[in-house]
Automatic annotation (TrEMBL):
InterPro entries: ChsH2_C (IPR002878), NA-bd_OB-fold (IPR012340), Thioester_dehydratase-like (IPR052513). Residues 64-129 form the ChsH2 C-terminal OB-fold domain. PANTHER family: BLR3430 PROTEIN. The lineage of its organism: Bacteria, Bacillati, Bacillota, Bacilli, Bacillales. This is OB-fold domain-containing protein. It holds the Pfam family OB_ChsH2_C. It comes from Neobacillus novalis.
Amino acid sequence: MEATEDLYRPLPTRESDRDWDLFSPFWEATRNGKLVVQECTVTKKKVWPPRFLSPYSPGAELIWVPIEGKGEIYTYNVVYRGFSPYFQTQVPFAMVVVELEGGVRMLGNAVGVDPSVVHCGMEMEVSFEKVNDDITLVNWKPSERS
């Protein structure tokens, strides 16, 4: 089998993702090792995933704000079967939803941990993975604060 780097890895691109412009401040921040989400200017509630309009206050502006990249696993799934050649080389791995401040829940892969020990409530922190000049993915690793 080919080396993992040679396999096609499904990623969002400017050409394939209709929401690329909406997410562009997020991708810019991740390239710089920062995590950002939107915030409603009226209610100050955090919004993720990004939207054009605030779900909390009709007509309110949404601004991008930094958020601490630490939280707890809200839910997870251990993947044992890869449906694309790239993921066939990665299994098993855990996909986690981490709950951050303000109730924001963000999806990503768990890294640096055996998938069999991943559990709800586990403290995690962001781990950035630079894939190319446009994409730096958000992954999650066990928190060192434990």
